[in-house]
Specification:
The protein is mainly α. The chain has a domain of 92 residues. Strands 1-2 form a two-stranded antiparallel ribbon. A hairpin with a 2-residue loop joins strand 1 and strand 2. Helix 4 packs across helix 5. The longest helix is centred in the last third of the chain and has 24 residues. The chain is globular. The chain starts with 9 loop residues before the first helix and ends in a 21-residue tail after the last helix.
């Protein structure tokens, strides 16, 4: 009899309510893992198992603005929602503002040294302090949990 290997137990995923449909493309697995740990499940990393993306080819093929090989629009909306959901509005807003301040200082330092500093403009190509647009069936309550 062949042994069966699972990426995750179906009962555990169902017990967590599955993936949150309010995430799109980024942070959905981070959210699921955080909820799993908070529910008392163990997460295991198996070093012999790998998955890879071929140089962000799917993201590049969209023609949308990228930030470090991610689609900026989706990455920053999902990250902001993840932070609001798990750490609150203040942490989410603070994270965006701190990141932009650090990138502005870094960009200024690079300009003073005569180097190109595109990080700030790349970051600002994505949304700042915006939640994702939610499907009607998945609209959040007034307060994310």
């Amino acid at each position: 009899m062949a042994s069966r290997r699972h990426l995750a137990r179906c009962e555990a995923i169902r017990g967590l309510g599955g993936f949150d449909p309010r995430f799109f493309l980024y942070f959905e697995e981070t959210d699921l893992c955080k909820r799993a740990i908070e529910s008392g499940h163990e997460l295991w990393a198996v070093g012999a198992t790998t998955a890879s993306h071929e140089g962000a080819q799917a993201a590049k093929s969209t023609g949308r603005r990228l930030y470090h090989a991610t689609i900026a629009e989706h990455y920053f909306r999902s990250r902001f929602y993840y932070l609001v959901k798990h750490f609150g509005w203040a942490a989410a807003i603070g994270t965006d503002m701190l990141e932009i301040a650090i990138l502005a200082l870094r960009s200024l330092a690079k300009k003073l040294l005569g180097r190109s500093g595109a990080d700030l403009s790349e970051r600002l190509s994505g949304p700042v302090m915006h939640l994702p647009t939610f499907p009607k069936a998945a609209a959040p309550s007034s307060k994310p949990r």
